[in-house]
Amino acid sequence: MHLITMSSSQEFVGIRPLPAGLQRKAIDELNEVPDRVSSDIAALRHWLLKQPHLCSCLTDQFLVGFLRGSKFSLEKAKHKIDRYYTLQASIPEVFNEHRLADDAQVLEIIRMGVILRIPLDEGDTGPAVTIIRAASYDTQKFKFQDIIRVGSMFGEIMMLEDDNANVSGYIEIMDMTGVTAANLFALQPQLLSKFSAFADEAMPTRQKGIHFINVPASLETGFNSLRSFFPAKIKNRVSVSSSPEAIFEHVKRDYLPKEYGGDRGTMQDIIEQMESKMLSYREYFEQSHLFGTNEKLRDDNAANINCQSYFGLDGSFRMLDID
């Protein structure tokens, strides 16, 4: 299976130097050895080029994300990339022909402000922050899978260019303002479970917390029951609160737009920045449709694990053959 890089202008290109604080954290917590990063990337790329079943992005920044997400265990990084592409095929509701930067539905969801990426100060070494406004879309017009698709695209952009997410992980603030029973019924629990497993087991960025805020008191029990749909280690990172003040326990007030009690612009400012960012990845998402796995070509020595076995894994896996 022929492997394709993102484009001739982006081929390999090297990686961004980390800011000093995040570099120290990567060394201390992720086992990163700066002088060895280039050779680690080369070893991972060499292995990918020898896998007949895998068609993968090969750029340095993409590969170093998986190395950091695997704490620089080459075996774990190889397995995670294999899972990354394998599991996408098992979630066609999300990974399909609509996963394009200029898709009309994708842009409409961005413009509604369902997903808000919160910029951090330079020098902050904490996790990246995303706010998801769960009731800001029409459940009669959009399915939950459409929202997840756009979220997955920004998750991939975050993986490629957000150093905080790569080193320190990310948190999600789930704003339940205005949520009704109809929103809960629209959640597609099986998809939520599958995508949560994908994010936990295959994405290199690490989920550090999911915090529900502004949960209507009448629905608080229902939201607590959502824990059952998350992977085991994520359940302990889920919090549920009916208070609008709960957001300040997880995000500095100074980082937030006016609508959330901060003074850093407005939600519309963030929406416009996010639309511009998405459109700048037009070529990336077009070419990402060329990537994936062909199970008929999988080498018998590779990790030949059925897609379904990935969901609910306890962290163990079959080692992939280096040679």
Automatic annotation (TrEMBL):
GO CC annotation terms, alphabetical: membrane
Gene3D superfamilies on file: Alpha-tocopherol transfer (1.20.5.1200), CRAL-TRIO lipid binding domain (3.40.525.10), N-terminal domain of phosphatidylinositol transfer protein sec14p (1.10.8.20)
One Pfam family here: CRAL_TRIO
Recorded superkingdom: Eukaryota
Limits of the CRAL-TRIO domain: 103-268
Listed GO MF terms: phosphatidylinositol bisphosphate binding
Annotated InterPro entries: CRAL-TRIO_dom, CRAL-TRIO_dom_sf, CRAL/TRIO_N_dom, CRAL/TRIO_N_dom_sf
CDD domains: SEC14
Protein name: Alpha-tocopherol transfer protein
